[in-house]
Amino acid sequence: MNKRVIFNGMKHVYLDYASITPIDPLVRKEMDKWNREPLNPSSIHSLGVKAKKILDRSRKSTAEFLNAHADEIVFTSGGTEANSLTLEGACRAAYRSFKNIGKARSKPHLIISSIEHSSILETADMLERQGVEVTRLAVDKNGLVSLEQLKKAIKPETFLVSIMTVNNEIGTIEPIREIAKIVRDARKNMSGGKALYPLFHTDACQAILYEELNVEKLGVDLLTMDASKAFGPRGIGALYVKRRTPIEPLIYGGGQENELRSGTENIPGAAGFARALQIAGEKMEKESRRIGELRDLFEGEAKKIRPDSMVNAAGVPRAPHISNIAFPSIDAEMIVLRLDAKGIAVSTKSACLRDEDESYVLRAIGADSRSSIRFSFGRWTKRGDLKKVLNLLSKFVQGNPLNKN
Predict the structure, then answer these.
(1) Is 205 in the active site?
(2) Active-site hit among 190, 297, 352, 390
(3) DSSP 8-state code for residue 172
(4) Fewest CB within 10 A of the end CB: N or C in the chain?
(5) In this structure, are 97 and 186 located in the same domain?
(6) Which pLDDT tens digit goes with each residue over 130-179?
């Protein structure tokens, strides 16, 4: 069944799945079971016991998706909070650790890439203003970090390395296992192999639907997920925190979520997220292949329309659902608006950027953000949708983009 958004009486072709995914009907059905009841897992009456069971079941199911333990899952309000908790929470723990081992005057050191999600970049900026040393690794023309540069950047004061799994604008897949090994080796080489640091975190929000996120195989200490990128509910995400990983909370109160995230838990959200992950796991192999074929078809046809067009980051493995294409000399924002007027939703950059900001991701890889459009595909994308978009692009991206056809 082809689910489409009805907006202003018009059926939309939705090609902005990297921004936010529609909620799967099966997920909505799961949430509806619990939406009408006052469920607080901290209460000791029967409704509270029921809520606790639902929460425990959802946590266990979420952990199984990652091949993790249930007590390693911390539910949050989304990917942004999980990322902020990782950076600031790990930094707070590092300050305490450094003080205990006589390194109180040492500046904790954080390593990120220059194309991380804005929640990572802006949290890193805030920590830097508070005295943390931050290294921002440059990326190559395809958005890949240099493993050699990473090795050189790590030092005894490094408490965390945070590199995203899949970039949300260009789809580049970073070599997470190799990065994790570099971080582990650095940890082994410090303090006779007894060091707690550095830790390794990955923001995997864009990888949930198409990449195997087995935390044991990946070798990560912390991992971020967001339900709204996986056909799940809005306002809930999860942070995987490996056992014995030093991290402190940002929100204090009742000590929920293993004392890392106080506040009454979102029971319908947690249940919906767990169901979304279950569906994602069941569909991953088939959908990855189908979406990848659609992406390749779309990029090939776009090239026929404009032979001088360029797929950004085409030279490395990419997640199948993201295609970022530059059409030289066109005004990308104008094209997005013209497509929207015809019932087609695409974007020029991450939805998390301010309206006036250009894409720092495209700038980092040397691409022209003014002429680049991100098309992102998903569970209900059909070939017919792409044909409609391509027909319009053939009119809009040739010659003067302001001409009305």
Answers:
(1) no
(2) 352
(3) B
(4) N
(5) yes
(6) 999 999 999 999 999 999 999 999 999 999 999 999 999 999 999 999 99
